[in-house]
Fold Fructokinase-6.
Amino acid sequence: MAVKALPGDGLPETKETRESPLVVCFGEMLIDFVPTVSGLSLAESPAFKKAPGGAPANVAVGIARLGGSSAFIGKVGADEFGYMLADILKENNVNGAGMRFDPGARTALAFVTLRSDGEREFMFYRNPSADMLLQEAELDLSLITKAKIFHYGSISLITEPCKSAHIAAAKAAKDAGVVLSYDPNLRLPLWPSADKAREGILSIWETADIIKISEEEISFLTQGEDPYDDAVVYKLFHANLKLLLVTEGPDGCRYYTKDFSGRVQGLKVEAVDATGAGDAFVAGILSQLSTDFSLLQKEDQLRDALRFANACGALTVMERGAIPALPTREAVLNAIHAPVS
């Protein structure tokens, strides 16, 4: 029988995790049900493979798998799936001390439709799910304030009480001098309306130091403007922003700082499932920035770091599910030096 993780069940610090700068990821962790056959609708899919997911949790596991130090803060149900997710964090050396278990709400589920090109559509079961019920009083502030980077998305802003917990956690991090990293991770079906989504995502825009967005998210936030036009992207650049990253799937990414901008090519691979690719990319870049923020001033080194992050994303699309597909540092370095065909 699997050992059930208990609330507040953190990992003992090892020499490695103590020496690596900590990245704390805040938000949702859930179960993705991924179809065993691509290119069919949910109704037509014969079977689904359960895969742990949730963008902030994927990033936390991604960083740990790359050899970095990470922690996850969020809430799951006090149910079999919730305990399974806590165990997965533990197995992957993610500090779970900030994880909470709700006895009255279930762990969130998402059914994913895989199109034949590996892209996804989602159907969520959250009414309400445990992740939406995290309260400010349940935050592990000591974990947040000792982080080097505090990473989050926008799904945790959709409903109370989680929204207030999110804002309080980010404020505690900012006040402690922690770098804030934001991936809006737009999931329109979860918001009451498109306007509310735009407003919610932009409501915390100005506080982030690092933002990662996709081409689709640029079009959405600018109400249909061209995501490939630098002038459009710079509209989303704010005075305190240190790095804005735009991911372009197989084409790689673009980067924008106050002093320079450019594009880094992606690795070409056979896409099976795009779930978690953006999170793997974020894990790749944050794992490097956490150990050396001077990358933000050195374009050549930032480009190398983004090449590494692109490879993290590329390797993740070659397998179904997010967390199962996240690569090790060794796999990423091998892919960079001997590109995957």
Q: What stands out?
A: Residues 1-18 have pLDDT under 50 and may be disordered. The first strand starts at residue 22 and ends at 26. The radius of gyration is 18 Å.
